[in-house]
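(Fold this chain)
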Amino acid sequence: MHPVSVTLQPFAATPNLIRRIGRNSGNLAMSCKPDPAFGSETSGGDDFTVGDKDAVIIVDHGSRRQESNLMLNDFVAMFRSRTGYRIVEPAHMELAEPTIKDAFGKCVQQGASRVIVCPYFLSPGRHWKQDIPALSAEASKEHSNIPYIVTAPLGLHELMVDIMNDRIKYCLRHVAGDVDACTVCAGTGKCRLYS
């Protein structure tokens, strides 16, 4: 977990602090930035790179809606293409396949010597704290010689602000008739102004 310095306070915001601040912290959360004293979350030294024998499993919740599950495959393909990582597999925590256990096995079959399980979740809730680690531990039992890590969820990262702002602007352009609906909303009729 990377400490986050808060411009309104002279100390680092830890998960416990954010939990104590509670729901009414929208303005505070928006003023948070990674603390440069702890290094960038988007760059680092060579000791912390993903190598050819490393595997990445990107885990979402899973859905009964097949279209939602297929979006994870699209994201995994985008992630693999953009990062150049050799072994990247999708997994759904529940409700759909492939499971974390399935993905872990596929990674090992492809020659992985370390598995990096990345929750495709925004917040560090119960699924990140309990469910995904338990499912990953269960999956690793069949491959006890392969170490693994469960990374932090997406959380409070300044690039999330850019992503949300991009989504807002695109949806407003769609409502104005300047662009087609995005791939998420296409065919749903959901991206419109309500009154």
